[in-house]
Design a protein that fits this description.
The chain is mainly alpha-helical and about 500 residues long. It is about 75% helix and about 0% strand. The longest helix has about 35 residues.
């Protein structure tokens, strides 16, 4: 009988083999599998993030190719100014001061022409004034003796730096010359302090001023001559697009309240606002962009359709009037989420009038947007404004007949539930119509604010001399209809 021998094994599996032989099978350790799995997961996750980031960058460049061109323009400007280091004759003429030209291109080059000119002019004026003042004070300090010289230089740096820093709190200086004041403090401090240890201060100042002038010249040339982006044109397009967005948002809010809400209630779905009705948000948040573009547009020369001393302030007034309307539209959008729902019979009573008023008001905004975009007087704006006023009168007439509808609703409610008291039914109906009355009141208020936008755009058209296209012959007919509607309302 063959004997079997067992071999004790502390790790692994024990295998007993006939004829007294044995072997041990070591298990595959788990820690290296986990490491490999985590490395694979990390690699896959990294590739997914890189792919997502690349798609976002590609989409951003495809949506606005001017951003890609701007990056290329900055690269071209830096390459040109780097020749002062690479070319030996140019480097011998300027020496290490050529680095100031490179720094100037980096800090001055902006996306728009207005931003570039703003920084370039501020830097040039600040550098010249600070350099000349520092050289003059250094000359006075030198003539005063070695003991008094550091005191004069330190006192001048303290006084001028303190005064210049305080001037940055002045609103006008903050808006137009903040960057120039910063450069003034930097240049004066560097020249004044370095002049104490440098014998030939005038040569140093001339080299730095000349290299900065070269950097400014290259920056402005590349920014203006190659695919320029004008701040004035950006402001012009922003004001026009905001009006179109506000028109879409106004129509979207009313449709969501009367049309989409009815459809969702019929199908048992929850009422939700459409993305179109939220376009007013970009209009409300555009004030900072409008102010920035208007401030930078003042530095730009005449270009395209925009002449010298173009009324950029009037664009801000138009934008302010548009935002004034957007606040009403924001309230309209907030009423969509009201938990109190008006009776369907009352909503149907006001639906046509509200939808018509929102449609006519949107026509006015779109016509104003087109007028600003093309810089032409609209031949139909008076017609659209009169139609909007007629729609307001129709809505007011519908509101005046709302109490009769309310009494009819109360009678219907009492017939269905005779146990309820009359006062309770009346109170319930009054609470139910509050959101509907709010919606109608906000529409009327929005139309009145749109008239303010019309006046602001009319002033802009008069100042900038918008071209006229034809004559509005149909406005008189609408005025007659408006008078008839007013007489009917009085009856």
């Amino acid at each position: 009988m063959s004997s079997q021998k067992e071999v004790p094994v502390s790790l692994g599996w024990r295998v007993t083999v006939p004829e007294g032989s044995s072997t041990t099978a070591e298990p595959v350790s788990g820690w290296n599998c986990r490491i490999r799995r985590r490395l694979v997961e990390f690699g896959v996750g990294t590739m997914a993030k890189v792919s997502t980031f690349g798609k976002k960058v590609w989409k951003m460049g495809a949506d606005d190719p001017r951003k890609v061109i701007h990056g290329i323009k900055v690269g071209v400007a830096l390459t040109l100014v780097s020749l002062f280091y690479y070319a030996r004759p140019l480097y011998n003429g300027f020496g290490s001061s050529a680095m100031w030209a490179v720094m100037t291109v980096v800090v001055v080059f902006e996306y728009t022409v207005g931003g570039c000119l703003y920084k370039a002019i501020n830097r040039a004026i600040a550098t010249l004034s600070a350099g000349a003042l520092a050289v003059g004070i250094d000359w006075v300090a030198t003539k005063s003796g070695q003991k008094v010289e550091p005191l004069i230089l330190s006192a001048s740096v303290f006084l001028l730096a303190s005064a210049a820093t305080f001037s940055r709190f002045i609103p006008t200086v903050k808006a137009r010359f903040d960057y120039g004041v910063t450069i003034f403090i930097l240049t004066f401090s560097l020249v004044a302090v370095s002049g104490y240890r440098v014998d030939e201060l005038m040569d140093l100042a001339i080299q730095r001023v000349s290299t900065i002038a070269i950097g400014i010249g290259i920056t402005i040339s590349v920014c203006v001559l190659f695919s320029p982006v004008w701040s004035g044109q950006e402001l012009h397009l922003l004001i026009s697009s905001n009006m179109a967005k506000l028109a879409d948002s106004l129509e979207g809010c009313v449709e969501d309240y009367f049309v989409t809400a009815d459809h969702n209630n019929t199908n048992g779905e929850e009422c939700s606002s459409s993305p179109r009705s939220k376009a007013y948000e970009s209009v409300i948040n555009s004030k900072a962009s409008e102010d920035s573009h208007a401030n930078l547009a003042r530095w730009e020369p005449a270009h395209g359709r925009f002449g010298f001393r173009h009324p950029w302030k009037q664009y801000l007034k138009v934008g302010s009037s548009t935002r004034h309307c957007a606040y009403c539209v924001e309230s309209l959008h907030a009423s969509l989420n009201s938990k109190t729902k008006a009776p369907e019979s009352l909503k149907k009573h006001l639906r046509d009038a509200c939808v018509k008023l929102s449609s006519d008001s949107s026509k006015v905004l779109r016509e104003l947007s087109s007028s600003i975009s093309m810089m032409k007087r609209s031949p139909s704006i008076n017609l659209f404004v009169e139609e909007m006023k007629l729609a307001v009168q129709e809505l007011q007439i519908a509101l005046s007949s709302l109490p009769d509808r309310l009494l009819l609703t109360q009678a219907t409610t009492q017939s269905k539930d005779e146990e309820n008291k009359s006062s309770g039914a009346a109170a319930l109906s009054l609470l139910d119509i509050v959101p509907l009355m709010t919606m109608a009141s906000l529409l009327i208020e929005t139309s009145s604010r749109i008239e303010g936008v019309v006046d602001a755009v009319g002033t802009l058209a008069n100042i900038t001399c918008f071209r006229s296209i034809g004559i509005d012959k149909s406005s008189s007919k609408v005025q007659d209809e408006g008078q008839e509607m007013k007489a009917l309302q009085e009856v």
